[in-house]
Model the fold of this input.
Amino acid sequence: MPAVADMFSPLTQSQRRFVDAVRALGPEFQQRGFAYDDEGRFPVENYADLKRTKLHAINVPTRYGGLGATYVDYGVFSAELARWCGATALTFNMHAATVMWSSVIVDDFDLPADAKKQHEKRRAAMHDKVVNEGAIFAQPFSEPNSAAAAGKAPFGTAAKRVDGGYLVNGTKHFASLSGYADYYAVVCTEEDKEGLHDVKNTILLAVPAKTNGVKLFGGWDVLGMRATDSRSLDFKDVFVPEDNLLMPPGIYYSAALKWPHMFVSLTPSYLGIAQAAFDFTVAYLRGEAEGAPPAGPARHSAAKQLAVAEMRIKLEQAKALWWRVMHEARLNPTKEERLRCYAAQYTVMEYANDLCQLGIRVCGGRSIFKNFLIERLYRDSRCGSLMLPWTAEICLERLGRESLFEPGEK
Done:
């Protein structure tokens, strides 16, 4: 079975190594996924395997003892992981993105010497926890007021500076890994001296999961991505040491504007789901999927052949655009590169569900039973377009506005 990346340019040696490592785990991940989905249970066993193989430290720089994956390396790894278990890949992205934001992205900014030295000390400690203690970071982002996650308002979760650190108060929704993570990488707004909140004062803090004032609440009985355990979090006067600052003050706001590809790290999860939908559909029609009817006249049907062709075209389009955008990820992209970034996010998220819809239609009535993978892929894929900070609607809005207006124009 081809990997997601096998139709791209030849993989680098490290990318091939990461893909092969995931493939060795993949079949078991896929099989476990049925129970995880049915029970709404977090994939603890999958994470144990990722830790056992050191893949949990894939994008921790080698100088800290990690595997040193680049942004593109991580994308290839994540897409292959999602082909076997979308919920594992999606939750793992929250952990991986936190590591990348603190390393790859921060390194692209010109920090004063003192700030750089201080950040180096802090992230070295964070990376040590990942590499040597197996720490996993969640990244609670969404809030009751979605305008903050979309970048249109300060985050309601506030951090007030006190001696030695911060007091954090607020609520986060859709907090993936909420019952499993060791740390919550909380995006919040630091209060200024007047107690006011400004979107430019957004900071990223590592809140220990087991600390006073952190409360997990609500349920997670949802359409898709049921194994992500994305319940809600409440923070009430939670003290967080200053050394748990994961990005220097001001860098998150600057990165959101100048390093927009930081938010595209969600897309590999859905590209992998799209690939899995295509793989399953072909295997089903060939009589090779477990529980599928023997190969018969179905694959000779012109209508089914045309639908499979449409699936392949959409998959190729999504892959090609995604592959280019991943290679364009950098500080200060051009306008065209930024717009292409929005287009890739929209295309991958929407096409993933399109492929799953076509797959169910092509495979027919039996495929809606939960013992078939395509049924879960369909439900998981529908969640992609809803994910902040770049929902499908936000991508369309930005693509249209920024195509028609230059900065400063009204």
